[in-house]
Specification:
The complex is a heterodimer of chains A (232) and B (123). Chain A is an alpha/beta fold. Chain A has nine helices and nine strands. Chain A has a six-stranded mixed beta sheet with strand order 5-6-7-3-8-9, sandwiched between helices. Classes of the chains: A alpha/beta (232), B mainly alpha (123).
Chain lengths: 232, 123
């Protein structure tokens, strides 16, 4: 089967600033992948390119063999770093909205997760705390039966206890054979659930490996290795 | 027994060791059905692929068996479990003896210390 995400010499510049300086990357299906790098390394740019929110300056990016666009949005479930939901809406209205929008959305799954997190579907978004809003957004994204989940900083704004729940939600809800790409710099928190890691630094991939090989060969955690590679 | 992982070794090998312990201690009794890969991965908060790999290795070693229709279970072969348990115990004791040797204890001194301690624990 073809790779779910493939980049060939992918470059993106904003004016004179080179955000991605030629990325070559292949991500297989059925993996949980950590996209790790310090602030400003190009993580979000890469994810936006995969969602056709940006277009490449040079090179190519393919999702399941296709250029990002309408067709790939059907198979990609994307969690942006910023919230885009309408504050006046009630949680259940957003669920209906998503069910209209995406064929692969499973409302029953969403309601089930809301119940477990004690979130009332009748609440308006504007009355929810920032952390709860983030949870709702993740629930929406994970209630789709997508082939690729792109999660940009899914655990940044929530407390450690909710972090564990969110990671659990990710493990137990991604569909078989789907790939999950999680961008974050909170490595220690997510290391256990990752198959592979991609280190990105100043717009280039500096390391791409599976987690247990790193631990095996270097005798240290991915978190420790990250601190070494990105030492300031 | 909760799941616990050290940062400096592969998670996969640590999973194997911890599942073995659960089998030896009787938390997973002989012949009992194991939870699905997903459930057990979720419980340990690890990646399901990693759990799958660990279970496949345990299967290769014979401690875990797969049934075509009903998932995985612990082997019913009590003798095999006993042997594996003894192997682990011997490894632990060897490590311990090695450390005692580094501290300058002769084997007989170590043994005497152990007996003394056991006596005291009885009281």
């Amino acid at each position: 089967m073809n790779a779910i995400l493939e980049c060939n010499n992918l470059k993106k510049s904003f004016g004179t600033k080179l955000a991605l300086a030629g990325i070559d990357l292949k991500v297989e299906r059925g993996r949980i992948v950590g996209l790790l790098g310090p602030n400003g390394s190009g993580k979000t740019t890469l994810i936006k390119l995969a969602n056709s929110l940006l277009t490449p300056t040079e090179g190519s990016i393919l999702i399941g063999g296709k250029k990002p666009g309408v067709e790939t949005k059907k198979i990609v479930s994307y969690l942006p770093e910023k919230t885009y939901l309408n504050n006046w809406m009630k949680v259940h209205q957003i669920i209906e909205f998503f069910a209209d929008f995406y064929e692969d959305f499973r409302p029953e799954k969403a309601y089930d997760m809301l119940k477990r997190l004690n979130i009332d579907p009748a609440d308006r978004l504007k009355n929810l705390s920032k952390g709860t809003k983030e949870k709702v957004q993740l629930i929406l994204v994970m209630s789709r039966e997508a082939e690729l989940y792109l999660l940009d900083e899914p655990i940044g704004g929530v407390d450690p206890a909710a972090r564990d729940y969110i990671l659990e939600t990710i493990i137990s809800n991604y569909s078989d054979n789907a790939t999950v790409i999680i961008s974050t710099h909170l490595i220690a928190d997510i290391e256990k659930i990752l198959d592979d890691v991609i280190f990105i630094k100043e717009g280039t991939v500096v390391l791409s490996s599976d987690v247990d090989s790193i631990r095996d060969e270097k005798g240290k955690s991915v978190d420790a290795l990250f601190r070494e590679v990105f030492k300031c | 027994m909760p799941w616990d992982f050290k940062p400096d070794r592969p998670i996969y090998t640590q999973l194997i060791e911890q599942i073995e312990l659960k089998i030896f201690s009787g938390e997973f009794p002989p012949g009992s059905k194991l939870p699905s890969v997903r459930d057990i991965a979720q419980e340990a908060s690890v990646n399901p692929n990693t759990m799958q790999r660990a279970l496949a290795k345990l299967e290769e070693d014979g401690l875990v068996v797969t049934h075509r229709t009903s998932g995985r279970s612990v082997t019913e072969d009590i003798e095999m479990i006993r042997k594996a348990k003894n192997r682990l115990a011997k490894r632990q004791i060897a490590e311990f003896l090695e450390k005692m040797k580094l501290m300058g204890f002769e084997k007989t001194e170590t043994l005497a210390l152990i007996s003394d301690m056991l006596e005291e624990m009885k009281k």
